[in-house]
Amino acid sequence: MTASEPVPVRIGVVGAGFMGRQHIGFIHAASGAALAAIADPVPPLDVDLGCPAYADAARMLEAERLDAVIIANPNPLHVETAVECLEAGVAVLLEKPVARTYAESRLLVDTVTRLDGRLLVGHHRRHHPAVARARSAIRDGELGQVVAVSGLWSARKEDAYFTDTPWHREAGAGVTLINVVHDLDLLRYLCGEVAEIQAMRSSHARGLEVEDTVSLNLRFESGVVGSLLASDAGASPWGWDQATEETLAFPFLPDGVAYRIVGTRGALSVPNLAKYAYDPSVPADWHSPLSRTYLPVAPRGSFQAQLDHFVEVARGSAEPLVSAEDASRTLALVEAAALAGRTGETVDVAGFLADTEASERS
Ligand SMILES: NC(=O)c1ccc[n+]([C@@H]2O[C@H](COP(=O)([O-])OP(=O)(O)OC[C@H]3O[C@@H](n4cnc5c(N)ncnc54)[C@H](O)[C@@H]3O)[C@@H](O)[C@H]2O)c1
């Protein structure tokens, strides 16, 4: 570190399981961050973390002088841990989902507002350079008027994922809350707010309390319609995690596709950014061939970019790209999807938000 470089942000990690360990790797790779401590009742014994380990967040916060905390503990603990950290005055990167329920997420939103806290939610895909490029292609009309979007995420989780970790098979987990929440967040980021949602859910493949497969229909406020199909029981090469080199848990499939965005003048697949468009010299209709070009972007992993952004949030030099309020809206969609799946009805999202907030107040 030279005299002109800022002092690294001292980060504690709460929950050193699958995701927490990845965050630890990203901290080690970042010049602006330093791993100060971890908190986990079952700390990893197989790796030398090179930092103190505590049984829980409270003990870590009391013993260490931290600037920031990354929370990667089980979902049911997210809000209470985040509130604890915000009250201790540290910046927070909270893994998704922001909370178990929309109502619970409102408690966190209120706490962030009350304490003027700095909190980023870990919807890491938003930090991927292909997402920024896809968003600008949509916003700048490169595809004409966007009319539809489709998404697919299907990957077969190993049986031990469910047998070894009880919370993975109980309410508070499930493919919608664990995985589809990322897709819903990204589709909101790309296409705007969702007005209506329909859902079909199934636990047929695994027979667990949580669903393993879900199919969603979405109508966006912009008029765009979309569909999203996801399963953690179905083996497939299709989905964000296979199409990016984000996590070692997923073999990388070059040129993979997670989303297809269709406009009146062309189409775009994401994250490989294959853009299909008519040549200006031919009629722009289905009788003409579509040419394919790949939009160039700088290679950059979204987790590392997320960590760099979090360092800026912790220093007070950036506003969180995914705030508690924003992630709360994404979580509301997961719940609206669950309601739609239970009732078989189309759920009006604005009405669902109003009803949920009214029942919280009463
Ligand atoms: N962003 C992503 O793509 C992504 C991917 C996987 C998991 N996640 C999220 O990360 C979180 C953790 O998931 P995981 O798969 O790593 O689970 P995991 O079970 O592997 O790890 C959870 C860890 O939390 C620890 N823990 C339990 N109670 C604790 C407590 N009171 N205080 C501190 N630590 C405690 C456990 O001992 C374990 O080490 C979840 O919220 C999950 O949704 C995000």
TrEMBL record:
Gfo/Idh/MocA-like oxidoreductase N-terminal domain segment(s): 9-123
The keyword NAD appears for this protein: yes
Record keywords, A-Z: NAD
Alphabetical list of InterPro entries matching this protein: Gfo/Idh/MocA-like_OxRdtase_N (IPR000683), Gfo/Idh/MocA_Oxidoreductases (IPR051450), GFO_IDH_MocA-like_dom (IPR055170), NAD(P)-bd_dom_sf (IPR036291)
Record's keyword annotation contains Cell membrane: no
SUPFAM superfamilies reported for this sequence: Glyceraldehyde-3-phosphate dehydrogenase-like, C-terminal domain, NAD(P)-binding Rossmann-fold domains
Domain GFO/IDH/MocA-like oxidoreductase: 132-268
Molecular-function GO terms, alphabetical: nucleotide binding
PANTHER family: BILIVERDIN REDUCTASE A, BLR3664 PROTEIN
Name by which UniProt lists this protein: Putative dehydrogenase
Organism: Agromyces ramosus
